[in-house]
Amino acid sequence: MRIGGTRHFEASPERVFRALTDPHEFSELIPGLQRLEVQSEDEWIAVVKPPFGPGLNLKLDLHVTERRPFEHARLIAWGKSFGARISIETKFDLSPNGDGTDMSWSAEVGLAGLLGGFGGKALEPAARHQAERTLDRLQQQVESTS
After folding, report:
1. Which of 57, 77, 116, 122 is the most exposed place for a label (fewest CB within 10 A)?
2. Global pTM exceeds 0.85
C-alpha cells in the first residue's frame, strides 16, 4: 500500500530535516514508542506498541538509507513479532518556501503474517490517519522551536 502527500511547515528546511533524521527527535513522532536504542546516526531500534494487534510489541529496525541534508531523506523500517511482519519505506523532499518549508512525502507499507489480514484497501484510511497524526506532531515540534 502506498500513501503520500504534501505539507507546509513554518520552520526552516534544516529544522524539519533534523526532526525527521535525528533519532531522538524522530522518536517523539513514533506512536506507541516503548523504547529506543540508537545504534548509529543512521540506524535505530524502536520497540512500539502498535495501534492494531492488541498485546503485540513490535521491534522495528529503522535505517536512514539516503541523506541529502536539508532536502531529501529515505528511511526504511522493518520489524516482526509473533508471526506479524511490517515494512515501511518513507521518502521526503523538502524545499524552502519563504520563511517556511514545503515537504512532499510518500510511504510504502507492507504487512504480512498476522498483520496481513489488515492489508489492502481496508488499511489505507487507518494508515493515512496515522500519517496525518504523525505529521501534526512534526508540525507542532518544528514550529514550536523555530
Report:
1. 122
2. yes
